[in-house]
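Subject line: Sequence and fold of a protein, written as structure tokens
Area: Proteins and the way their chains fold up in space.
Start of record: The labelled sequence and token lines come straight after this line.
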Amino acid sequence: MLISAKALILGPGELLAPGMVRVLGNRIVQVAEEIPLRLGEERVVLEDAVLSPGLINAHVHLDYTGLRGKLPADSFPAWVKEIIRLKASLSPVELEAALEEGFRLLAGSGTTGVVNMEAYPELLLLADRFPLRCWWFLELLDIRPHVWSPEATCGALRFFDDPHRPLGKLGLAPHAPYTVSPELYRLVRQSAQRFRLPATTHLSESPEEWEMFCQGGGALLDLVRQAGRPRENGRELSPLQWLDRIGGLVPGMLLVHLNYLADADWALLARGEHPVVHCPKSHAFFSYPPFPLERMLSLGIPVCLATDSLASNDSLDLREEIRVARERHPGVPAQRWWEMVTSAPARALGFPGTLGEIRSGAWADLAAFRWVKGSDPWEACIEGREEPLFLMVNGKVLQTEDRRYR
């Protein structure tokens, strides 16, 4: 297939206008301003459009897609209590429908890759049904005893039987320092390194988590104790320092949220070894204080954007995340925002140049957005409210202007 557009966003700050892309199988094999059409080759002409790498949502819980508007925002512990209650009532049919709707919403906003936290491993048996590139991160916690069902075990083991699946990849997601023991964090680190699996964790998300670790008290610690067993906490240590101290930081681990940081945390983050995932609309949902984005970027800390779940958001559109974040961080240029939803998460997941960019040899994950020639193409992508004019994942066309993905 030969695809032409008025402009191509190749990678961070790189534009080719006009441009053409040749796709063979699931890979991009040629990128140039002009490419001659081969005999029998399909041609796609994207008029008034900018072709971009498909967006990558670095953190979402698709299981909770059906919970939009059902949870309180007054406090994080109250939110946790309510989501535990609601999760207990979700049926297999509702969970399957949540995945279907979640993938539909992602595709409808130009997302081609997603890092999904999977709390129900049995749903991994459905992984091949969905056409987007997905990293299924197993949510792990040991705050109370839990026995996996045969279906849950089978769902996870399928990924070890066939590690070269075209779209589905496995990851490990120890939930958070208040629900995961030091022993489990260390086991995740050993397993991630042994099986070459990516890892992620929620970290330093709420003021209650900060109070629990730095002051040894508070509502979240009370909730943890009520859940089944008392826990040691990192008194006078930030959650990040605690995780580092107990040996739970996996190399390259994606650290989600980091809304509260101590002075000592910055030296650790400045090594650039751990990407940070920021969820702007979820951040606003809980009315957290301003996120230190500019400082992170100035120190070279890798930052990715994500939506989190519809339990603390009303959309899975990464363009909306950028628009909300720009209100608080107006000095960050449009090109840098677009990097945070394309090449930055690709690098964080271990696929630089292969994903999140338009290069020869990269996977053919592409999205086209309407663009008026003469305007800034990155601004057009960010400010666009329409569904993408064209969507391709792994070389397969999912959506065109006259055929929407459903």
The chain has two domains: 2-53+357-400, 55-348. The mean pLDDT is 93. The chain has 14 helices and 16 strands. The radius of gyration is 21 Å.
